[in-house]
Amino acid sequence: LSILAFFFLQDPTAAHYMFQDDPFLMPRNSANSRLFALSKESGRNAARYIIKHFPQYFDKTFAEPNVPCLMPETLTPQTEGVSEEALKEHIYLRRVKESVDLFDHLVQAGTPVSLETTNSLLDLLCFCGDGESTLEKEKEEKVDSEEAEGNTSEQKAPKRQLQRGSQLSRAGWRENNNAERVFKIMPERNAHSYCTMIRGMVKHGAPDKAYDMYINLLNERHKADVHTFNALIAAVPHLKDRFLERWELAKVFLNHMAQQGVQPNLLTFNALLKTLRRCGGVGRSMSLLVIKEMEALDIEPSLATYDHLLAVFYRGVHLPSSGIISEVLDDVENRSFTAQDPDDGRAFTHCIQTCCELKDIKLAYRLNKAMEKGDNWRFLDVDRLNTYWSKFFSLLCMMEQIDVVLKWYKEMSPSLFYPSAKNILDLLQALDAANHLDMLPSVWEDMKQLGFSRKPELLDELLSLMSRDQHPQEIQLAFAACAEDIRAAHEQAGRDQAPLQWTGSSLGHVALLFSRAGRTQDAWNVMERFQQINRIPSDQVMDEFLTCAKQSNSPDEAIQLVKLAAALGLPSSQRLKSRTKKEFELSEGQK
After folding, report:
1. Confidence bin at 149 (pLDDT 50/70/90)
2. In 3-state terms, the chain is what percent helix, strand and coil (to 5)?
């Protein structure tokens, strides 16, 4: 497949390959794309639920010959009775509650349980908590909110600590839970027992307990492993409030690693850089030293390493120059990465955000080249892919020539991403800056396809651009057709949709577009809506409407306009009345 893909270009009109199975389910916008992409995983989860709760329907095999390695995995315990072997099997199958019950029965019966088995039970409890085993889900919103708090003033730190504590407490570590209870009744404990508890407490939001457990480990003269130190370093921002105190505590853990002869690995340095993200100026002064230490130990950075490094330097209002990110891209664009850290997946989206904040399109092009290098694109799932290209397109609209913007737009949508409402707004502003307003009808068709035909902010911007200046008649007719669609969107609501509310400006824009296209009756119907829904037209609308009436030599329309202005109580009614008397030949009755 890779060889075939090399010889064929990507179809810019086609959606993502995962949606090709059923054309009826081709998404129209990013919301549909996310829904359809998640539906497959939802189906897998439903299948797992059925297999787990109704295993009796899946215990028959009819294959001849029977090949065990090709058969479905056995999910029901086969060992009966209360024994250590049964406990091992339940632990292997991740039956949390049943494993705890079996362990309690063995302890009550006075049956000794080996240290290895008890540690396996602790591993299960500390990984899953007290609940049943589920797929581990990353809570990116929590991470992002924590990072947003990271570099604020230190005076607010105690309050933030309380907020973080409440967030972490909901993660699942209860007081005297099963893991703590099993740990306390263990007749003997080794380093593995303490390390498991420390990592479980950090994972489930009890960093203070994890630190106390680490002190107990030291008092028992045990040594922690590298994974435990990684967890403790990652928990440092939750243990200390001030930036300098955080760095000092991280150094304490690093010194303990050296004293205990524990060799740091990539995740150790990534955890340290992640902590430095929340150390303000201390992080900026120390992060480059961490990178040099990695080089000295011949540890190759992962994408998460670069992501943390950029986050240390490029955050806040006052952004530095593009020197650091340029050096990072020098390395990234020449490598094809493999996943080594759970945070690797966020690197490209955060990097393109930095390019947008720096307003540097050249860096964005380099990042795009790096993303397409080897298998680096695999780090972008459907959501991140849409976010990446959305930010890239916004930067294009801001910094590139309109021809380049339109070229990328045609190639990217919908094969790479579905434009958001902000992307469409950026495109409209780019067309306005380049005086390329003849493309507006085409953009309107895309807006309808993407489901943005009822977005008030987009409709107002589109109508404003179309009605601002006079254009050749052919373009005015196309604009009037767009105005007709927009009027229909305001007046015809779907079964589950509330009707759009007219604003005075949007009504005026539609009236002008109809008038300039020669659709006088439609224009008058729109003008009557001002009085019906209590909206006030602008002086520009009234003046231009009177000018159109003069060009068509229609004094009746001018008089009707003056009556409308008087009915609405407009200050310009007297001026319109004077213009009508001066510019039109009126009969005695009309006067």
Report:
1. very low
2. 70, 0, 30
